[in-house]
Design brief:
Helix content is 45%, strand content 12%. The strands form two sheets. Strands 3-2-1-4-7-9-10 form a seven-stranded mixed β-sheet, sandwiched between helices. Strands 5-6-8 form a three-stranded antiparallel β-sheet, with helices on one face. The two termini are 24 Å apart. It folds into two domains: 4-115, translation initiation factor eif-2b, domain 1 (Four Helix Bundle (Hemerythrin (Met), subunit A)); 123-329, 3-Layer(aba) Sandwich (Rossmann fold), CATH 3.40.50.10470. The protein has eleven helices and ten strands. The chain binds ribulose-1,5-diphosphate.
Length: 332
């Protein structure tokens, strides 16, 4: 690789894999940033070669982490436009401009979406609320932060989120704003649930039936919330909704390395193995509503959001939307 941008692009891919870049929204923005780097720093002057470089970068990003649907959605947002320009005979500079514009648009829209979710979601948080959250979600935190900045007094239970302890990041972020935080172990969620008014979490993917894929442990928290009649909210930008699930595909749940759970040297017997799924699925009936940048929807309306926002209504249109085989087995 002679182009210095390629080094930066590989670094982004490695950082996503190693979770130095993490959280569904940030993963998508970083992958799109890689496409931006590829377009801006291309050393060719030929539109066909440029499109190839963009698609190669897209494929590299698609191989990083499988669950966050924001990643393929963000990549498609850009590649779809680049391909369209290329099909209509765009010159090198037009193709580059179109791609750069699409990348910037996606990144800006996604940042604006989080702000909007904060604004909308904060209206559903009441003064004096006791909240609970899991993992580290920018969208969920924005709701809490906005409510707090609007003068609502809050207390937030934050689960540490084994095995990677993203809950510590959340505790730090909320703590830095002066919000009272109680850091608890994951298995203490039910113990405290009766005290909690609202649980708010983020999402890596929302399927067409309104099921939410989020950090492992979310569904257990939803179960405990339902049992104690505690509201359960999800904060998710519309680019986390999965068009593939409209046509029967399942969201792939990432299985991470066993060493995240226990060092292999500490496993004494060969009959012991470790399972480390990184996400789980919360069924729609456990979710009160999903806060999107377009408004609050019941989870059952996920299908409508997919149809309206993404304009995907038939398998043929999905194929067009997919733009190319990004989801081939070896890439995820
Ligand atoms: C992060 C996680 C977050 C969602 C939403 O998992 O499950 O709740 O990605 O985050 P990981 P955001 O740490 O494995 O990436 O709202 O920031 O997109």
């Amino acid at each position: 690789m002679t182009n210095p941008a390629h080094i930066e692009i590989s670094r982004i891919a490695e950082d996503i894999i190693a979770m130095r870049i993490r959280g569904a929204g940030e993963i998508a923005r970083s992958a799109v940033k890689a496409l931006l780097l590829a377009a801006q720093n291309s050393q060719t002057d030929n539109p066909t070669d440029l499109l190839e470089e963009i698609e190669e970068t897209a494929k590299l990003m698609m191989r990083t982490r499988p669950t966050a649907v924001s990643l393929p959605n963000g990549i498609r947002y850009v590649v779809h436009r680049a391909r369209g320009a290329s099909r209509s005979g765009a010159s090198f500079s037009t193709l580059r401009e179109t791609t750069v514009k699409a990348c910037n648009e996606f990144i800006e829209n996604s940042e604006m979406a989080i702000e909007k979710i904060g604004e909308i979601g904060a209206r559903r948080i009441l003064d004096g609320d006791v909240l609970m959250t899991h993992c580290d979600s920018s969208a969920a935190l924005k709701v809490i932060e906005t409510a707090w900045r609007n003068g609502k007094r809050l207390k937030v239970y934050v689960t540490e989120t084994r095995p990677r302890f993203q809950g510590r990041i959340t505790a730090e972020r909320l703590g830095a704003l002066g919000i009272p935080v109680i850091l608890i172990i994951d298995s203490a969620a039910r113990y405290f649930m009766n005290e909690v008014d609202r649980v708010i979490v983020g999402a890596d993917a929302v399927s067409a039936n309104g099921a939410v894929v989020n950090k492992i442990g979310t569904s257990m928290m939803a179960l405990a919330a339902r049992e104690s009649r505690t509201h359960f909210f999800v904060a998710a930008e519309s680019y986390k909704f999965s068009p593939e699930t409209m046509f029967g595909e399942l969201v792939k749940i990432e299985e991470r390395d066993a060493s995240e759970v226990i060092p292999p040297s500490e496993i004494k017997y060969r009959s012991i193995s470790v399972a480390n799924p990184s996400f789980d699925v919360t069924p729609p009936e456990y979710i009160d509503f999903i806060i999107t940048e377009r408004g609050i929807i019941p989870p059952q309306a996920a299908i409508l959001l997919l149809q309206q926002v993404l304009g995907v209504v038939t398998p043929e249109e999905l194929e067009e939307f997919q733009t190319y085989e990004l989801r081939e087995e070896e890439s995820i």
